[in-house]
Amino acid sequence: KTKVGVVGLPNVGKSTLFNALSRQSIAAAENYPFCTIEPNTSPIAMPDDGRLERLAVMAGSRRAVSATLELVDVAGLVKGASRGEGLGNKFLATIRECDVILHVIRTYVDDDIVHVHGRVDPVGDADVVNLELLLADLAHVQRRLDRRTCNGIERDVLSKVEECLVEGRPARTLGLSLEEGQSIKSMGLLTLKPVIYAFNVDEVDLLLDREESLQRAKESMGRIQYCDPEKDSFVLVSAKLEADIGELSENETAKYFESLGSDGLPDNLLSHNSVPKLVKDMLGLSLVYTGPGVPASRSQTTKSHLLGQPAMRAHDFAGRLHGDIQSGFMQAEVIDSASLLEGEGYAGAKSAGRLRTEGREYTLQDGDVILIKWK
Ligand code: GDP
């Protein structure tokens, strides 16, 4: 399961965003630092513009089961976390298990909400968090290098990583090879993980000054230190707006937007759409569809080119479904979901010869509908 760790300084809006994303009020959003003590997790569905729903209808299935990401709300980080301050150690251990970091940055101004450093400073905040992650990795790497059991490729790679960190660059900027990545994988280095910065903007800015907010975020991205300017990406969110409308009926939502002088927020800007899509792109995940039911009633994510992970093949996928399906694997029937949805249904596609028959070595492609034939 792909884990997305939500990090950021206290009071930037992590819990609020977490709640908006999970649509369940699991994490308590309160106006004081350290209110999030236990790491909370919640599944969030992988959006696909309604494709799964339509496939499930085609399959005559009443329940579509979507692939999910696991969102992890990590306890608030403060300056000094890498030395164990605040909830430092716990924070670091939780984040080590995540595949990608969603780094929430406060850009909203609200005098009623305390800022831990006394003023709203998106770039400064991001630097504090990034530096803690970097220092934590440096200490971790140096401890490992001090051991006599650290040899061969592991020692070579870690020496390279140490040098990189000392220069103030996160380990992911090294662009390690698959083999190099594997050799130090068990360490779960924090700065190897891809980062998405979520700029938590004021709801009015998001609704009415979207272009300007975007420009400001881009400009901030350019000034954040200890990041990977090539690969790190960002998204605009308004945690409060989403939390607010999550509580309202359709009618009330319309009124709410009207009161702000806006006609509403396009679906693709809602964080439960934008964040998982970005995660999918960054991690190189594919979303595929399968039974039970023909053509499909379930979507699943598969890794396509993750560091140290070969892309998923039909035979591995069968194994994910069930051991018996894998051992009895005969062939896979595959069709692209978009082309299937355009056409005349599964039976029609089959008789028109538009289904492909693939063997166990077939590499799954994003958007595939795949049905395994087994005995
Ligand atoms: P966390 O400590 O990072 O988890 O922050 P919370 O999500 O608990 O938010 C702290 C406080 O800031 C809460 O009272 C939220 O309602 C408020 N807050 C969060 N996001 C926004 C926002 O976009 N605008 C405003 N005005 N307040 C927000």
UniProtKB/TrEMBL annotation:
One of its GO terms (cellular component) is cytoplasm. It comes from the Eukaryota. Keywords: ATP-binding, Metal-binding, Nucleotide-binding, Signal. Residues 2-257 form the OBG-type G domain. PROSITE patterns: G_OBG (PS51710). The keyword Nucleotide-binding applies. One of its GO terms (molecular function) is metal ion binding. The keyword 4Fe-4S does not apply. Pfam families: MMR_HSR1, YchF-GTPase_C. PANTHER family: OBG GTPASE FAMILY, OBG-TYPE G DOMAIN-CONTAINING PROTEIN. This is OBG-type G domain-containing protein. It comes from Thalassiosira oceanica.
